[in-house]
Design brief:
The chain is α+β, with helices and mostly antiparallel strands. The protein is globular, with a radius of gyration of 19 Å. It has two helices and nine strands. It is 22% helix and 44% strand.
Length: 172
């Protein structure tokens, strides 16, 4: 009887240790980090990257790296605009103001909603539908892990991005 009780308690501890921390308790209103892969494609190019997104102490930062883990870009979302540096610490310079505005608007849209999507919520805090549209983007959610999608597919006028979430957590 003691042996069964001991094995039961050990099994419970092992099960608790194996629980997926991503499954419960992610709050998009707190400080957070999200990691994964993103494939971006258009008629002109197609690329796959690793990414890490951080919202900590009101610092909004995205780190983009190659599939081998080499950091390529560091993007900071500032109240006055966007700062992009490459791995050689060169500042991003675009060809036109329109390109900057389009890039910034799309990046801010994804930044604003990504933590909600990861939490499995729409803009009203309700559970996500499989498909939605917002700000000119078609958004499809798939491969759900409980209430959270692990894959988010975005499409806007030929620009496609597929985000695969591998890890997310609140930074408390």
């Amino acid at each position: 009887m003691m042996l069964r009780s001991g094995l039961f308690i050990i099994s419970c501890f092992l099960l608790v240790g194996c629980v997926n921390k991503n499954f419960g308790g992610f709050d998009p209103n707190l400080e957070w980090s999200i990691r994964g892969k993103i494939s971006v494609s258009s008629s002109e190019f197609a690329r796959v990257y690793n990414f890490s997104v951080f919202n900590k102490n009101e610092a909004n930062e995205i780190v983009v790296s190659s599939l081998f883990g080499i950091e390529l870009y560091r993007v900071a979302l500032l109240p006055s605009g966007i700062s992009v540096e490459d791995s050689l610490f060169n500042s991003y310079k675009s060809q036109s103001k329109e390109l900057n505005d389009t890039f910034e608007n799309n990046l801010r849209f994804i930044w604003r909603w990504l933590p909600r999507w990861v939490a499995g919520q729409d803009q009203f805090g309700e559970p996500l539908e499989m498909f939605s549209e917002a700000d000119g983007w078609s958004i499809e959610f798939s491969d759900f892990n409980g209430i959270s999608p692990r894959v988010i597919a975005l499409d806007k006028r030929g620009l496609r991005a597929k985000i695969r979430i591998s890890h997310f957590e609140n930074l408390i």
